[in-house]
Sequence to fold (541 residues):
Amino acid sequence: MKMKKFIAPVLSLSLLVPTLAYAETPPMTRATVSTPAADLRAGLDYLLSEHFVLAVTAMTKAYDGAKDAQAAYDALDQNALDMQPAIASLYGEAGAAEFNRIFRAHNKYTDDLVKAMKAKDAEGIKKAQAQVDGFITEFGAFLGTATGGKLPAKAAQDAVRLHEQQVQETFDEYVEGDFKGAYDTFREGFKTMFTISKALSGAITTQMPEKFMNTKADTKAADLRSTLNSLVSEHVALSVLEMQKQYDGAKDYNALIEAEKGNTADFKGAIQSIYGQAGADQFEKIWVTNHIAAQSDLAEAAKKGDAAAKEQIMKRIDMFSTEFGAFLGTATAENLPTKAAQDALRTHEMQIQGALDKYAAGDYTAAYKTFREAYKFVFGVGQNLGGAIVAQFNDKFQDAPMMPSNPGTPSTPAPGMATVWMKINSKTLKINGKTTMMDTTPFIWSNTTYIPLRYLAEGIGANVSWDGKNTVWVKAGSDTLTFWIGADYMEVNGMKKQIGTKLIADKNGRAAVPLRFITELLGWDVNWNTKDWSVKLTKAM
Fold:
């Protein structure tokens, strides 16, 4: 199979990580998903995303008065305790103790908020909300101090505030009975945790370069590892919760099935960007028929106590493990051996089944323990499958090795260097030092940074035209770029290129394009200012 350009979901809050200017380029080294910095990021991906999943689960279960509510909260609390050793390894026992004091307490604040809302206790709600606000300020300050300002306190507070808002919005929509909205927000909040871990791991590795052997947390290979981990761990979270809800006959289980479809579509998109449409279609057929659908059927069989049906379903799931393991082995040219993939898949399926069996038996503590084991297990996917893909297409995951220039040196454009400056939520545009006011702004939506296509294109001397409906043409020299609003692809001189996410029209009706895609397409370098959320694009002309 031929390698397509891999387009991972753009992680917008990665702009929280300081970006350095660079000079000399040493020789290339082989790209890998396994570096100290990538390992740190993967560990934070796991712990922070699991926190989000368990926080939402504990809150909704508590509101419903579910029998497993306490077990869900206990799992959430254990997640906080499990973070301590990682913090201690970086900032010592005193730092870990302070982290634990702040972080663990905020789990109780959200639990108190749920109880107050359920009791319609206005004063209790006000008190709990104030405690959550206090946590945001205190925890952001802790992160800023701990990282020596590499992750600024204000940026950390903004990120934590977004997380808390997404948890609360998910819960509010659930309480209102808007289950589709709740799980749409859940999926957005889940992705945010991977964004935060990228920012935090980048700050830590910048702070302690020797400890992490001067490796970086935001390489293309590390991004691939994180993206795969995000997709498969979200699958575990959604499937286990859906099976619980289907077993209980809960009103929201159909909304969870729809959320699983969204996860499958995202996974298919990632496969397509690597192995093309044929590979993506093959993935979807295998992934859904004897896997997603079979897990739902398994919950129904457990609900009915139908042992014969369960036995047949387990045969289908075993068939999935065989077929999907073979698919991965073939796709990666055995860089991920078929046998190893099949063995891992069978372990995964046994864990998912085990979580359901224990839940059905009423052993909720064991059910959440098994869920957590299953959730942690799949974080090996990013390392193993991602490692196989990077080994298979190593040149596609090369980052230009760079040496940091003197941070005290003023950033002055070199002769023949074009510069474009924009700022999130600002109408100011500066091109080669000349200021123009736009009628729209760059913005972040669905964890992707978008910039106005027309202003960027015209600012660099291209001509832009629009058909008044959904097609935009950019004429740059002898090249014609064609974009369509709502499409996740574009064309360069008639040749299709995947964007990775849909082109959208912003609130002012302007076509907005993902920053990462357009800058890579046009060959511009991107530098973020972490203090004011501005971005400077540079290119030798």
